[in-house]
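so my prof wants the structure for this chain in the tokens format not the other one, which i didnt know existed until like an hour ago. anyway here's the sequence
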Amino acid sequence: MNPAPLFDGQRVVLSAHDERIAILRLSNPPEGFMDEHSERELALALDAIDASPALRVVIVTGGQEGVFVRHYDVRELEQRARAMAARGLRFSTDRPVPEAGIHRCIGRMEASARIFVAGINGAAMGGGYEVALGCDLRVAQDGDYRIGLPETNIGLLPGAGGTQRLAQLVGAARALEWMLLGRTFTPREAAAAGLVSECCEAPVLARCLALAEDLAARHPLALAHVKRLVRRGSMAVSQAGLADERTLFCDLMVSQRTIDEMTAFNAGGRSIAERGR
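here's what i got, hopefully its the right format
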């Protein structure tokens, strides 16, 4: 079966598995980084989802073998940081930084009545794992890759909701330890630690489709109400916390040490997770 395209971009492709289930594939060969272009296309794909009233479940997965979203492109972040620092910008939580595209997209996934399932088929760190955190369920395919939030390894912090959502998912103490140390996990370790709900054998898409079929057969209003109530309760995201996170991320971006660490990372070609294992 060749799925019908609902949105066909360079970085994001949204296809209909059937009228109830869609598959959203993220890619950016060869490395699989997220960038500003990815953010724009993800927003357009979410527009297409909103315009498809029969859709019940959206599977978010990587369009490249071995990569979900590796992480946000540090080369792009370095360029932004240098431009911000050159302008002499300073940041304070008294003046919150507005949401960028990635923040709005993740917020839309959380607020949607549809159920979003992350099918993690490869590397998912930093902004990539933050996209998975915005989903309602997370399934990881077994393999030799890393999952987590290693931003402190290059002088940054998780800036797309990771500090808030990981703490909700696994508890403040464990989230704090792992983010402070920039720790990342294999898929099996991630399942044991609670970063994902399960680790399955390849292909992860088959497992996610089975989950999606189960979910799509249930009363959509019941699922939407459960999602709304749980996210308003124990999983409620602090909007003030998200605003502070965005602002303090920018505060780090204009720090000379962070710029130096990003420059060294981009020059050296090492893994962002290397120091966090």
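also thought this was worth mentioning. The first helix runs from residue 36 to 50.
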